[in-house]
Design goal:
single chain; alpha+beta; Gyrase A, domain 2; three-stranded antiparallel sheet; 21 helices; 7 strands; about 10% strand
Length: about 500
């Protein structure tokens, strides 16, 4: 056995310096690694030798890559070329679109830790609609209120946490708590930056899909992303023009959906909102949480998890394992699932078998909360547009310092500008909305992913908005799969929960 380091990411400025010193070098591209790995399947030479060969014939490598990836359709070869990209001067709204691409890694400037100034982008659509003055005036009003809120919230947080405040080391932590609540009045046009790591296959997809976005900012990002990588890996990023599927599908669905809803909504129990519909095996929708609602879950989930556990350690067909699991009594099933969880620690992922069952929730959450939810890339997430009719999420601290009324006034003035933009440039209207404004989100998670979400988001160190959401999701999930979610909890509550679950065992 041998494990050889084939390459690693280094700063591009170092590569440029190397090229300056040795301008004749043509092999400073990840295409050679992609090509060498592509040859593994048909060439008996050791892969490290294939890499040496590839570095000596870059033009041949590029022709080979184009043939393998685009003619033969083996697109996974492009995944071996990985890029680190600095993304600067983009809006928070665009970041939501960027981070919809799950097979990439992102680290974003945090509004929880950085005190923001007056940095924001003015959408091209707003300029063209002649609404720049109204837009800028509204954003500046929001930003001034943000600074005023921070000045109110900072002493409030310090006074509420005297033990932490006594130690200067905790100063930035406490000030961060004040910033994270003050940011609820900031717009989605607020400028931010992020670091992104992504492979060539997903860069191509990102370039193409964002070029089909209705937002001009997304088009510019698409162009700049392609410009940044095309000279480095021209053989791996090729199909960058949006297709009809990319451009027209969403709007075609919207048009047809409008017709269906208009025609059929009056026939539904409770009208278009579906109120009064009871979801089998779940909490009645009339009694469900207005902000977090479990709409669907795998039937007999605990039985299916027991069957999956049996299947993974036996030689029985799954159907027979399911028959056995269905015939087990509650204590037998509980005993099996407890065995699967008994050695778990707060940092351990749930067993892979827990991906066999899932839950679908509808969330009504703030932009602040969604900014965190979207990072859970193993979940299946779809969203509606932001909707001022859903109200706003106001941090309790803002109410506590007597700033709720002016906060609501800022939101009301914001919505007036939103309505102006919506009439003239509907695609860009969301830019002016605040981090407090809400949208509906549908999220499908496996039980294993809900364990992870709970671990990091139901934890006491998590931001309060998403912490409350995660706790509600786990609570409703336990109603339908109590054994499967026995140990779903935040990191800080895991040990206590574990102690209760295994209280009678030494």
């Amino acid at each position: 056995m041998d494990v050889i380091l084939a390459g690693h990411n280094i700063d591009h400025d170092i590569i440029l310096e190397f090229q300056r010193l040795q301008p004749e070098r043509q092999d400073l591209t990840p295409e050679t690694i992609a090509a060498a790995y592509a040859r593994i399947s048909r060439n008996p030479k050791p892969v490290n030798e294939l890499r040496v060969i590839a570095r000596g014939e870059v033009e041949k490598v590029r022709a080979s890559n184009r043939n393998i990836v685009f003619e033969m359709g083996h697109s996974s070869i492009a995944e071996h070329a990985v890029f680190n990209l600095d993304v600067l001067g983009v809006s928070r709204l665009l970041v939501e679109e960027i981070e919809r691409f799950r097979l990439a890694s992102y680290t974003e400037k945090s509004q929880r830790y950085v005190l923001l100034t007056d940095d924001f982008i003015i959408p091209q659509e707003v300029r063209e609609a002649g609404l720049e003055d109204a837009f800028v005036a509204t954003v500046r009003r929001q930003n001034l209120f943000y600074l005023a809120l921070y000045e109110k919230l900072r002493p409030y947080v310090l006074n509420r946490n005297p033990e932490l405040a006594a130690n200067p080391v905790n100063r930035s932590l406490l000030e961060g708590w004040a910033k994270e609540d003050a940011r609820y009045c900031l717009s989605l046009a607020t400028e931010t930056q992020l670091g992104m790591t992504v492979n060539a296959r997903n860069i191509e997809l990102m370039v193409r899909r964002l070029a089909a976005s209705p937002l001009a900012e997304a088009h510019e990002y698409s162009r700049r992303l392609y410009d940044a990588v095309k000279g480095v890996a021209p053989s791996l990023v090729r199909y960058t023009e949006p297709t009809l599927y990319d451009c027209e599908t969403r709007e075609a669905i919207r048009t047809q959906a409008d017709e269906i809803i208009s025609k059929l909504s009056t026939r539904l129990p409770g009208g278009a909102q579906g109120k009064g519909i009871a979801f089998p095996g779940l909490v009645d929708a009339e009694q469900a949480d207005d902000l977090v609602r479990l709409l669907d879950a795998t039937p007999a989930a605990d039985d299916k998890i027991a069957a999956a556990l049996l299947h993974g350690v036996s030689h029985l067909p799954l159907a027979e394992c399911l028959n056995i699991a269905t015939g087990m009594n509650i204590e037998e099933k509980k005993g099996l699932i407890r065995t699967a969880l008994r050695r778990m620690k707060a940092y351990d992922a749930a067993p892979r078998e827990f991906e066999q069952v899932g839950l679908t929730f509808e969330l009504v959450i703030s932009a602040t909360c969604f900014a965190q939810v979207k990072r859970h890339r193993m979940a299946m997430i779809t969203v509606q547009d932001y909707d001022p009719a859903l109200g706003v999420t106001i941090p309790p601290s803002i109410t506590a310092v007597g700033m709720e009324a002016p906060f609501r006034e800022i939101c009301a003035r914001t919505e007036e500008t939103w309505e102006q933009i919506r009439r003239s440039a509907p695609a860009a209207a969301a830019y002016i909305l605040t981090n407090a404004h809400r949208r509906r989100v549908m999220i499908r998670v496996s039980a294993r992913e809900l364990y992870h979400l709970a671990r990091v988001r139901a934890d006491g160190h998590a931001q309060w908005d998403i912490r409350e959401m995660a706790a509600r999701m786990v609570g409703q999930g336990r109603e339908v799969m109590p054994l499967t979610l026995l140990l779903a909890a935040g990191k800080d509550g895991f040990d206590a929960l574990y102690a209760r679950v295994f209280a009678n065992e030494s």
